[in-house]
Amino acid sequence: MTPAMNESMPPVFGEAPLRIEDVVALARRQVPAVLSDDTEFRARITRGADFLDRLLDEDGVIYGVTTGYGDSCTVNIPPALVAELPHHLYTYHGCGLGRFLDETETRAVLAARLASLVRGMSGVSLPLLQGLEALLRHDVLPLIPAEGSVGASGDLTPLSYVAAVLCGEREVMHAGRRRPAAEVLAEIGLRPLTLRPKEGLAIMNGTAVMTALACLAFHRAEYLSRLATRLTAFNVLASNGNAHHFDAVLFAAKPHPGQSRVAQRLREDLHSDRPPRNEQRLQDRYSLRCAPHVIGVLEDALPFFRQLIETELNSANDNPLIDPDREQILHGGHFYGGHIAFAMDSLKNTVANVADLLDRQLALIVDARYNHGLPANLSGATGPRAAINHGLKALQISVSAWTAEALKLTMPASVFSRSTECHNQDKVSMGTIAARDCLRVIELTEQVMAGMLVSARQALELRERVGLQSTLRDGPAAMYADLRERIPLVEEDRALDGELRQLLADIREERWNVYAG
Questions:
Q1: Most-buried pick from 134, 239, 300, 461 (CB within 10 A)?
Q2: What CATH number does domain 12-206 carry, 1.10.3720.10, 3.30.70.20, 1.10.275.10, 2.40.320.10?
Q3: Which residues are catalytic?
Q4: pTM of the shown model
């Protein structure tokens, strides 16, 4: 369910830099898009467009404006045809394939492109910015194929679908229906644009798709880190494990901040400030004992990834750039998505390792040889019927399958640069592929966590049957109570897919406010 829009604190494009959270809120329709009405901001935008007009009148040579694109930069465009060039750019890039970006992803793309263009270094006009704002405000979403970008020269092919829609071409999703863009623009009172000479490049020659997907991936991964910690606490308790593996003095000896934060959360969840019991096992297996060392890598990496993503988000990342103050054309390569590619390749690695950690925890608690007194496969069946019931046997297989697929996708996309476009784009970032891979790894890890929620709920109640007095308190106790209320104990075999899908939706909606603040 999309949360109701809250218009009290929307981010304002053209004023303060956007945060990842702003993009997520815009993508989820929690806040509206607002373009700054500041006089100085709007004057800067106009100065850049006016400078380009004067330069064209003086027969200035501008890449992609009076020349062809890419390796065709040596082709001079006759003055009478300059105005047609942007139309050709988005037309011939209409060759994307694969799935269409979903509605949340598409809103994030529009927000990311607008965030870049309001920097005032792209030579675009105010109507173009207003057009992007209108698409977001009215939820008119270009149908953007996910595949076809090598991440330099920017996300050309997918962003061509944004340019085309602003001009009244191709198709959009609006109010749940797929429709021609021209019809919907007319309904919302938005006149199709005729792109000015550099505006096709300005829309397309940038990193908006990969950056948008990176914002969404970061936000989901941040929640998964916290949820994995809570699940680990449940699994330590379910396996009758040693909560003192997370001792504060122990972690002060190796003080990675994120790792220490995970250990602290586990201490609080498990109430492990009590003295150890004499019968406590000295050492649990690594998937329990070393959980802070695995989840902590993700925790420690997230601030660095945030820096990379938010810098890209708030950058002018097309080419050429237009300095409206010095009236200078700057030819460069800011469309290159290397930082996002690195962030996404690295994030998917850390998230997949968390999935693998949880998969190993599940393997322990379903196995009667290692779970310290729980029934095999966490079966809740008793008496004669226990012989025909199989508990969570198949769920453990599925969790293993989802984990394996996530691990398979950790191959970095950024090392697969291909020389394209007649060797003009001879080194490319593959940032958009990395971002799509990262989102898929996150999706699979969310599936693993849905399975782990079922197994944790099952294992904790079964542990109570054999005399455990729960040490859970506050947040974890409330979460366990919620799971017990919503997921019946598996005593007789039943299909779990419906419950898993609901749990997956709960994870994505962040139902459990784990470790808030």
A1: 239
A2: 1.10.275.10
A3: 63
A4: 0.95
